[in-house]
Amino acid sequence: MTSKDPISFPLGSVPKDWDPDELKYCGARGTSIHAPPSLEGDIHPIFSNWVIPDTNGEAESLRRELRQPLLLASRILETVGLPWLSEFCIDDIFRRGYPGPNDPQGPPSDHPDRQGDIPCANPEVIVRHHRAAWATPRLVRAWLSTTDWELRSNLPSYVQWQLNESMFSSFGWVGYTCRHQQAREMSAEDTPLRDRPDAIMAADKEARERGATSRFLTVLIMKEYVFRLCELRRLGRLGREEYLFTAFMAAVTVLHELGHVIYWRDFRALNRRMTEPFFGGDLEMELGDSFIASIFGGWVPVPIANENRFRLRGTFEEGIAWKEHLSWDYHKTRPRYRNHLSIPVQ
Fold first, then answer.
1. How many helices and strands (H and E) does the chain possess?
2. Which ranges of the chain have pLDDT less than 70?
3. How far apart are alpha carbons 228 and 237 in whole angstroms?
4. Residue 333: what pLDDT?
């Protein structure tokens, strides 16, 4: 891996010295091997329902490039993703006796699950049952089996995925979980307006009348991911560093949004501030990042380019860094700065 461009550092970062010989020995750089993605098998059912725009007869090529990221997301989910997700399936996190503290804000006053002035129990914290002393291997296997069934048999019919053309350019979002379903491709400009408590409750009411047991969700993924993969293939850069980074980050984004889906799928997941609970010892209310950090040992992959430059270009030419996830699992006091680690390309 070589580059003539100067190494790019995020604002406020401090360079870390790497042993170049060690990096070459482990194949992290200095190699000329180019291996295109070659995953095979079936895409997990939870990622199967896609709406792909066909503006210029490009749907087939977009679907082809999307396959490898979805296969990667599927393998990661099946291998290491179930324990985190199972915490939302093995117990009713909205019941009043749930061990996690209740959100004092509660749902809006006209929410159907609100009883007079007493809100239903929106959790402030998701409790990690897997860490309990009584979580025997047999019990854990049952939890994972229950979660696997939910993701394969029930939830896929309530989740629609869309490649969105305007979300990234309008807001800089790479993914967004909308808490109601759209029959057409949703415009990013009207997403914040449509995704309000009153609109969500109206959609929930209609879904309940149709006999739905979960909330219909629309997950938007920026189309730029797949556009760039198509472009890199045309340029003969299939399997090169940027292609792999882009495919990897597309898979990460899909998994990130699944971390939101597993919470918002419940009709009762609604409060005045539209916030999510903390997960375990996390210091931030961000279930998507929490899920990704659980997969990668407390780190979340992000583009090296600073936010403004990434939004302008939307590519991973400068590589990716690993952002430290803030959690009491790794900190005794709240840190003033967040670490980002990345191996420079030379």
1. 11, 9
2. 1-16, 27-33, 100-121, 182-194, 306-307, 344-346
3. 11
4. 77
Compute the distance between CA of residue 147 and CA of residue 47 in angstroms, rounded to an integer.
15
Angle between helices 224-234 and 59-76 (to 10 degrees): 110
Average pLDDT, the chain: 83
Per-residue pLDDT, 3: 37
- Sign, CA dihedral 250-254-255-256, equals positive
> Which residue stretches of the chain are H helix?
20-25, 59-76, 82-86, 137-149, 167-171, 191-194, 197-209, 224-234, 241-264, 287-295, 307-313
Q: What is the dihedral of CA 118, 122, 128, 134, to 10 degrees?
A: 30
**Three-state secondary structure call for residue 109:** coil
Beta bridge partners of 221: 163, 175
**310 touches 225 (CB < 8 A):** no
pLDDT value for 229? 94
Nearest to 126 by CA among 90, 100, 95, 147: 100
Instruction: Check residue 184 and give its pLDDT.
Output: 55
pLDDT at residue 265 in the model:
95
Q: What dihedral do alpha carbons 341, 342, 343, 346 form, nearest 10°?
A: -140
Burial of 103 (0-12, 13-18, 19+ CB in 10 A): buried
- Structure token pair of residue 212: 């739905």
Query: Quick one: the chain helix, strand, coil %, rounded to 5?
Result: 40, 10, 50
d(CA 79, CA 37): 18
Give me the pLDDT at residue 153, please. Answer: 94
Instruction: Yes or no: say if 334 and 283 are a contact pair by the CB < 8 Å rule.
Output: yes
Structure-token pair, residue 321:
């860094």
The pTM (predicted TM-score) of the whole model is 0.86
Contacts of 132 (CB under 8 A, 6+ apart): none
d(CA 60, CA 12): 42
